[in-house]
Amino acid sequence: MINMAKRIAAFGEVMMRLQVPGYELLSQASSLHYTFSGTGVNISSALARFGHTGYLISRLPSNAVGDAAEAYLRKLGVNSSMITRGGNYVGMYFLENGFGARPSRVTYSNRQESSFNTAPENTYNFAEIAKDIDIIHFCGITLAMNDQVRRHMKALAKEVKACGGIVVFDCNYRPAHWGEGGYAKAKPHYEDMLQLADIVMMNEKDAMYILGMQTDQTERQEQLMELIPAVADKYQIAVIAGTHRHINNDNTHSLRGFIYKNQAFTFSNLLTFSIYDRIGAGDAYTSGIVHGEIQGFSPEKTVGFAAAAGMLAHTIVGDTPMSSESDILRAMTEAVGDVER
Amino acid sequence: MINMAKRIAAFGEVMMRLQVPGYELLSQASSLHYTFSGTGVNISSALARFGHTGYLISRLPSNAVGDAAEAYLRKLGVNSSMITRGGNYVGMYFLENGFGARPSRVTYSNRQESSFNTAPENTYNFAEIAKDIDIIHFCGITLAMNDQVRRHMKALAKEVKACGGIVVFDCNYRPAHWGEGGYAKAKPHYEDMLQLADIVMMNEKDAMYILGMQTDQTERQEQLMELIPAVADKYQIAVIAGTHRHINNDNTHSLRGFIYKNQAFTFSNLLTFSIYDRIGAGDAYTSGIVHGEIQGFSPEKTVGFAAAAGMLAHTIVGDTPMSSESDILRAMTEAVGDVER
Amino acid sequence: MINMAKRIAAFGEVMMRLQVPGYELLSQASSLHYTFSGTGVNISSALARFGHTGYLISRLPSNAVGDAAEAYLRKLGVNSSMITRGGNYVGMYFLENGFGARPSRVTYSNRQESSFNTAPENTYNFAEIAKDIDIIHFCGITLAMNDQVRRHMKALAKEVKACGGIVVFDCNYRPAHWGEGGYAKAKPHYEDMLQLADIVMMNEKDAMYILGMQTDQTERQEQLMELIPAVADKYQIAVIAGTHRHINNDNTHSLRGFIYKNQAFTFSNLLTFSIYDRIGAGDAYTSGIVHGEIQGFSPEKTVGFAAAAGMLAHTIVGDTPMSSESDILRAMTEAVGDVER
Amino acid sequence: MINMAKRIAAFGEVMMRLQVPGYELLSQASSLHYTFSGTGVNISSALARFGHTGYLISRLPSNAVGDAAEAYLRKLGVNSSMITRGGNYVGMYFLENGFGARPSRVTYSNRQESSFNTAPENTYNFAEIAKDIDIIHFCGITLAMNDQVRRHMKALAKEVKACGGIVVFDCNYRPAHWGEGGYAKAKPHYEDMLQLADIVMMNEKDAMYILGMQTDQTERQEQLMELIPAVADKYQIAVIAGTHRHINNDNTHSLRGFIYKNQAFTFSNLLTFSIYDRIGAGDAYTSGIVHGEIQGFSPEKTVGFAAAAGMLAHTIVGDTPMSSESDILRAMTEAVGDVER
Amino acid sequence: MINMAKRIAAFGEVMMRLQVPGYELLSQASSLHYTFSGTGVNISSALARFGHTGYLISRLPSNAVGDAAEAYLRKLGVNSSMITRGGNYVGMYFLENGFGARPSRVTYSNRQESSFNTAPENTYNFAEIAKDIDIIHFCGITLAMNDQVRRHMKALAKEVKACGGIVVFDCNYRPAHWGEGGYAKAKPHYEDMLQLADIVMMNEKDAMYILGMQTDQTERQEQLMELIPAVADKYQIAVIAGTHRHINNDNTHSLRGFIYKNQAFTFSNLLTFSIYDRIGAGDAYTSGIVHGEIQGFSPEKTVGFAAAAGMLAHTIVGDTPMSSESDILRAMTEAVGDVER
Amino acid sequence: MINMAKRIAAFGEVMMRLQVPGYELLSQASSLHYTFSGTGVNISSALARFGHTGYLISRLPSNAVGDAAEAYLRKLGVNSSMITRGGNYVGMYFLENGFGARPSRVTYSNRQESSFNTAPENTYNFAEIAKDIDIIHFCGITLAMNDQVRRHMKALAKEVKACGGIVVFDCNYRPAHWGEGGYAKAKPHYEDMLQLADIVMMNEKDAMYILGMQTDQTERQEQLMELIPAVADKYQIAVIAGTHRHINNDNTHSLRGFIYKNQAFTFSNLLTFSIYDRIGAGDAYTSGIVHGEIQGFSPEKTVGFAAAAGMLAHTIVGDTPMSSESDILRAMTEAVGDVER
């Protein structure tokens, strides 16, 4: 479907991640490690690492925090030329690492006042942007922010479509962001995005909870195989991909990816692995799917590549994937080995 | 005037200070050192260190950041039993240390949404609090926040007055917080506080800029000696104290403290010293004045103690003074010495 | 038996823990992470975190180390108003973290000269203290120190009993502290404490080795079920609780808690979990038992709560438990989950 | 002369700087802070920070060190699209910070085998590069490397000249790199570069030692004023600029900049300041001169801007200047101030 | 065969190990932990820790890096009196720690120019050295360096033999160092060393690949049992020892050691363990074999001791073993235990 | 007098220095940097760095702390073969760095129970030691410890004298160690040592306060010039050397060294310098005097070398001097320069 497209943009907020080093709690420690990430950052960085140009469309304040964020994104390989400056704040979250029976804990600072979430109507020149890119990526976290942000998203998606570009949408529903009665509030906005999207990241839970679709199946796998084709059909989506994740008793995770395309499902092997950093690994999977589609990989290779990209992202410090295409291809074929020297 | 009072409360916001270690900029570094402070924190901690009970009256969120803040305040010696929990956020600021010709730089996160600044009307039981304390401290930074916070301040000041307590007010005008036309906006609120206050921290600039008082004098010292008695007289203030600070070419600072009481000025020696951490040193001076008044020190001893407390606070890491009464008394009398062992 | 009691004190030494970060040995590294702990600290902090007032009765030197210790205890939530100052030293231990087949290693500095262990006869006003508390906690490590410390312990236990308070005693026998012929030397002192105690932490090994009780049973479980009722009967102890721990080949530990009360045993589920920090986890179990008794939990809930508290304490950095009641209740009911955000 | 030019490239090696933190020696410490720098990096980064596009023309290995270098340069704002990959090594140097009477110490690893210094003949497409840039910067350190590197330099300078671009050359003679009989060996190569250059950084010592020019003057200032016009005349150089630096007894440095242009000298004020990091400050001065020329500043403003840029670079961690145009303009006009908040 | 020999030297290069702390990549982090190691360092340090005198015969530059290396070796217990100074560089490698599915990665700096690898012919006084030692150790990594180094090795081996000393040779073939057609290039040099050696570390792969020996067996164990006796016979080697290592799916390793001596194989138990630091563990095994031979342990004890030494070395930070003889003897007999206190 | 002697031993305690990094107090920080030092360590390390063999005669425990201490001493260049193992503890002190007006603060742990201070009578084989060394160094801190240590000191001094060795004694009186009535208690022990000593470190204050000598002079310089010759004469001391130190208002120190030998005083220049680490700098001065005497330097060169060694030691991290002979000779002749590269 897609072939060798090169210019990819992601629209989304840049978050400052303030992580307690090691396993102390915020009330025990005295220092924080900071990085800048966000779904859009992760996607554009990962695709830049695969050899494409990865833009981020976002808004940062003109102060020391905004400068630090932009420098960090450039270090990640993100092309920052579509970032505008204005507003006053960067959204932040604190991360305390869990260990074994104690889960990791995220505490947000007030995000609604961020430069991104308070961007006024004509902040971005979407018409210009749409001409300069081949693919645009959005996610459900952004969709949850506020009406103005949702207007930005939809306007940009339409411009890209109008210019012949590809729209990728990751459903990524976060209950905390939609609040009470969230699914009902979210549904029309998700439907708008699905109607505009060519590639969608989701699984059967999104179909059931967000879109309110029904099934008599009780097993996840059967639910998936019944509902995803229905979604693809209803919203005319070329590619739907996603994962099933299981957390094992020994703290390893098991992950199986799927891709639904041309009326057919393809599944990756079930991968089981240890976790260093859970956050952002879903974005690595998405970037693998997008890259596979761009390169014209077979569905088998695409879903295997995406699953391995996701697995490796769990072994990387920070939210943002750092693996090259060759790292991932090697992880698809080799057993865990000894030191590389 | 005051004698051996023991229970002191400060009303004010707890800020999370996120400091880049060493001399890197936020766009160079990757870790932050965090502490919790604020004028109220500094005052109540300093007075606790002098042997009094130092309460903080404030509001913190019921999350990991609020827990960390409260634990940190207890470590500083602050009695946290008058802190209420609610709201969602703690105000934060980033600090990049300056060096020589490059000044330190502070970048705030959005403070208006903090738990303290969004505390609704009946958050605090001021009637109860007023019974349990002898002295209450307020500052001009808090006064700049918003109308609700100002209502809290004035209500508390009145309750303490009504119970026979002492009101301390530090003018501490910060232009950035009042914005355009700030002095005009600030003046009526400052006047309300001055009318309620027994001990006021200010100097001639506050009289001229905030209160709009006029003088024909052109030298700071003469302006001070003309205007401070006028302020004391107009607002019926028992004690007015403050400092004159000069930044020398070799990056040392020179500081002289004054106290005006019983129609007479008393000045400290001019102290010249190196600076490790500038922030919060004014609060050390205030705590020295309050302690001198509590203990019934002579004006000479009070102003010398306060100036030495201020000087030592510049040599301490972080916003909050850490010197004991004996540390300060020794600094008043001795030259800088060799290692203490 | 006990109900909603609120003021709990622990009597014991404050130790400075000097830990090599990561997995280096003391002869490889150059920095140490320091904290202050001890059984009494852990118990009073854990119970303060559950909503009670947790006092520590101890003695610290009037120097920089004593100041640091007291500040640290306050940060942990310990009420320091029953700590006296005097003597010259704080006991210290160095901790080198083990990894896999290499066990962790503890090296003590000279502890007998500590402020706590050299406290002279009238250091503490036990009559006053006994009036202000509902529960007092002691442990076998303190009992091993020296005759003067043992006199303090027994005098305090008697005062609390006389005022109607509850005495908790954790047998916690450490062979290194009693030296040669240790059990024989220890027995009479343990018997004195057991006669004063209402709640005792121990298991069948303590009964056999310290108290010299005999059994024909060869399995731990049967030994436990024969000997613990005999101990309860002989010393008239209302509640006896403890754990059986097993170290698995994959370095996980398995733990099952028991409580014996009203002539009946109740056991927790067998919990199997990864270990971050082994030290102090037994104190978390004790604090769970005490809290369950205070709150009037059923034996099932008490022993489950204590076991989960113990499990979580193994996932926390440092000796001292940091989990809230709600953290523990959630760990009792939920599987290990994904990031909390 | 030059006006609003925007695309600037620097040709030079990327060095890995491995710095012992604080003031320990390499034989005392166990960790190093690493960054990537070099004269070309510093120049292109500084000019990017002033709003231009700053390219680096260099060669890095295709391995983890080369990846780290390129990411770091992007973070500094350097456009990395003209960097080629090949060879095996990055040049490195160890830096031990001096203190007071003890000077800083630099120890190089073997630099001749670096990717940059072993770049074969057709590594760079200079014809293409010359079309895409307005200004090219070279320095004497690069000139000292080896014959192949010198051939690259001269070929690139000629291409840029041929395309109408501006050539900047910083004499920057390092005795250690030229070895025995260095000046004689260096002279013809310096002359080649001077003949190609439009803007040259040097002072009277370079004229005397490298170019072998003679003067009867004995004072630096008179030597400068006699020799620089002679150099400008002989090699037809439009702008010559440089500094005189003096190290004071109190470890501050004093710096005065000059610019010689249109047959006239202009001098900056003498700036005296404390030093945080000495290395790379000369490059900040150069970038100020180039920026002033680009913007069409008056000579007074250009030399003042360059001197202030140099002064601020001494206050910044690392080799590479981090100040914005507005930071520098403010430093030109204001006294050292208090915290910016 | 050997008995209570005490003076052991190893001939080999000192490498500077520059390790990224934690699990970040070189392109994410900003600091490195540095140590100095190498096979010779590991062997001489390990044997010094067992009570022998462990010399290193090597060459280091007379600069800050050489000083740091020598200080570090002394700290490890290596006797540095046989180290000569000269040349300019120390070989270095960067280490990025792997996690789970992501392997560790080593990146070398240019090693051929190191002081050791450029040591001219008469650098070492081998005749003197041979008189002062009882045992000399070499390894295949050194043999791969260059012709001059190989001449040093063989000359030293012959001198030691001539003085009646014992020669230990560890085959340790590293494909990256020999390059294309490596086995053919390596074979004659290996044969020279095997003819001089008394104790050899190798397994069946070395026999097949380096020495080109053939077998019809397809299982590792049978290949080993057929080929090792053939090697011992052909080259007249008294002791051959080595290991079989298997990497399990859960990232643990399993290791079984063997020793072939007096026409008989002896095998250790299969040890399965978690890995903290993989590098250098083989040297711990070698040092265990050498120590066992020196002490006259039975083959069972020797191979068990060596395997336990190897296992413990995997739990130690850095390349160099840190376990004492008593640590290893305890690990041979005990299950993993609780904290040692 | 002395010439090219090579084997120097120092007798003294090894202390563990636990330093708070940066400028935080022990009650603010959470980590410590640890090193091992002591006057004897400093002297033997400094002389080893000058090319001699530097032994330490001391006693360390057989545990992890003792192992770390010995490894650290070897790293410093100290020959550890005269260190015995036994006892249980290493003496420790905590160091909080002062800043400007706030002095550094040292807090000791209990030192009397250290392995060194509890060494029983036949711990050391002084007869053997005396044969193997040319020079022995003692200091007044050791003399203050206890009777057993004093017996060791005097026995060793006598053995060395008997074997024709040189005895160095540094008076180094520390009031805190002698307690009340200290001078009277100390005097006979000092006299014993002075009678045995060939080279003594002291100044006029030691003569007046410890030895009770009287003078009518009121200026330090005149007191010195009257009393030192009297001491030399009375106790038959060949060389007496020492310093006058003055702490300036800008926190720099000024130091002038003197040496009295052959009835003549020689003084160094007055050196004024910034201080990084005050502790141990006196030992650097002593090591310079001893080295000058060994090498047969002129008194001018010896005192200049010692003063420069002392100055440089103030710029070094930690107690122990790290400068080579060439570093010191350069510091004697050059002004502070720019980076060495």
From TrEMBL, chains A, B, C, D, E, F:
GO terms for molecular function: 2-dehydro-3-deoxygluconokinase activity. Belongs to the carbohydrate kinase PfkB family. Keywords: Kinase, Transferase. Its EC number is 2.7.1.45. It comes from the Bacteria. Residues 6-320 form the Carbohydrate kinase PfkB domain. This is 2-dehydro-3-deoxygluconokinase.
